[in-house]
MgtC/SapB family protein (Mycobacterium deserti), 243 residues
Amino acid sequence: MVVWLAADPPFFGGPGQGTRQLVELFVAFGLTALIGLEREIQGKSAGLRTQTIVGTAAALILLVSKYGFTDVLQDGLVVVDPSRVAAQIVSGIGFLGAGIIIFRRGSVHGLTTAAAVWESAAIGMAAGSGLLLLAVTVTAMHFIIVVGFMPLAKWLASRLSGSVTMHVTYEEGRGVMSRLLQACDRRQWQLTDLAVDAPGEHAGSGVSGVLLTLAGRAVLTAPTVIAGIDGVTAIRQLDDDPD
C-alpha cells in the first residue's frame, strides 16, 4: 500500500500545477479585473465581478485543456487534442454575451459590454496559454478604445456630417413638434427616424414623447437646440455607446 501511494501522482504540484500556471491564472485575474473596473466605473451591467470571473475561468479552462488529461494519456493508444476543451470557451461566451444584449426604445443596448465579456475571455485564454505579452497588449488596447475613441468620434462628428438619437418629452397641444421641425429645417438637419411613445405611457400627465434621429452637419448640438424650444420638458440623448 505504501509503495502504491508513493507511485501515485501528487495532488498538488503535479503536471500543470506549478508556479508558471499560477502566474498565468493571476495575470488573467489582474488584467480582466482592470477591464471589469473600467466597466464598473462606466456603470455597465457586466462589471468588475463578471469580467474577472469570465477571464479567470477562461484561463483555468484552457489550463485544464492543456494539462488536465496527462494521467490518461498513453503513447499510441490515448491521444487528446489540447485545443478541444478550450474551443468551447468561444461558443460558451457567445451565449453569455447574447443574454447581455437587449433592444429598447428603438436602439440596441449591451453590444460593447457583450464584446468586453468576449474580450475578457480571450485575454484569459491568452494568459492561460502562456501568451502573457499578448494578454497585456490587448488589455492596453481596450483602454485605448474606450478612452480614446469616443472623444475622437465626437470631434470628427462635430466637423463632419453625423447623426444623433434622442428621446424628447414635450407638453401636448402647444405645437412643440412643429417648432422642433422648423428648428431642424433651419439648420439643415434631416429627420431620419421618428417613433412615438406607446399609448398610455404618459397617460394623464399632459405630455407626450418621441424617439427621433437627426442627421447633418454639427448635429451634436441638436440636444441643446431642442432643449431651448418652449414646451420641451426633457431630453435624453441615447449614448453613442449605450452599453
